[in-house]
Amino acid sequence: MHLAFVSICNLYFSISNLKKNKHFLLKGLNFILFLFSFILLLIINTRIALLASFLGYFLVFVFHFFKNKNKRQIIKSSSIFIISISVILVVFIKNNNFMEEKYNRLLFDKIEMIGKLDQIERPEVEVYSSLVTRLSIWKSTIDLSKDNLIFGVGSSNSRKELINYYKKTNQKFLLKHQFPVHNQYLDFLLKFGLLGLIGTFIYIGFIGFIGYKSKNVIVIAFFLLFFISNLTDDFLIRFDGIVFSGFWICIFTSNYLKTNRINQEVNLPHL
Q: In the chain, N or C terminus with fewer CB closer than 10 Å?
């Protein structure tokens, strides 16, 4: 998640500097930093981080296209980045057989077996890291949350209650590995009920609100990144996720308030 945001920022600054009359070496350095961050993303090989990054790249391209009057220059520079990304991606896929498996078989295979993982032969081999396992966990979490919809089961009891639910519903594979929720929205729904779910949406949605009000593509990209990342992980119960989001929310909000104050002062009538 952190590296994905760095990669999106590198792309933004790279395209921004291409439009300005800056030294060729500086423009080249920005371009190299972006490619380096993208390569590191592929080495880490996290599906959600790559998805969020590509969405962020798309937003940056669209933002610069509509903001810049010289459309031809933006199309030309964007094409260079898109071609570079495509070449690097093809090279990685050709030289990493697991990457193709991870983004194909482990993502879509046996999707019809949601909640029926014990019927799969050797589930540890076939579906341990697949989407169907996550969906089965989320289905159990939702079913358990229905009985405690208003206030939840409590923060300290949620993991134990979920494991007990695996045992109660005879889901041996999930029980054996004691899988956690791995979804921030459902995790807080289980722990704190509807109030927890609403609170999560308000906290993360505030980032989107600041991005919309400030018309800042970096803030909007960060919102999408954090929103999507929390669909498959629970960063608001982890120190790195809380600090990462809290730090940037403060930066974005401060910048918006400062810019808004300056704009108001400029528009004040002169006495």
A: C
SS3 224: helix
**What are the Cα distances from residue 160, in Å, to 115, 165, 166?**
19, 9, 10
Alpha carbon distances (Å) from 262 to 37, 206, 210, 247: 34, 22, 17, 23
Q: What is the distance between the alpha carbons of residues 163 and 177, in angstroms, rounded to a whole number?
A: 9
Cα of 203 vs its chain's centroid, Å: 15
pLDDT in tens, 52-70: 999 999 999 999 888 877 7
Q: What six digits make up the tokens of 151?
A: 């206030």
CA distance 78 to 58: 10
**Residue 255 in tokens:** 């910048």
pLDDT tens-place string over residues 166-203: 999 999 999 999 999 999 999 999 999 999 999 999 99
Mean pLDDT of 261-266: 72
The residue length of the chain stands at 271
Identity of the residue numbered 229: S
What 8-state DSSP symbol labels residue 154?
-
Q: Which residues contact 139 (CB under 8 A, 6 or more apart)?
A: 114, 115
162: exposed, middle or buried (C-beta count within 10 Å: 0-12, 13-18, 19+)?
buried
- Give the residue from 200, 196, 205 showing the smallest Cα distance to 223: 205
User: Which value, to the nearest 10 degrees, does the dihedral of the CA atoms of residues 19, 24, 25, 29 take?
Assistant: 30
By CB atoms closer than 10 A (0-12, 13-18, 19+), residue 216 is: middle
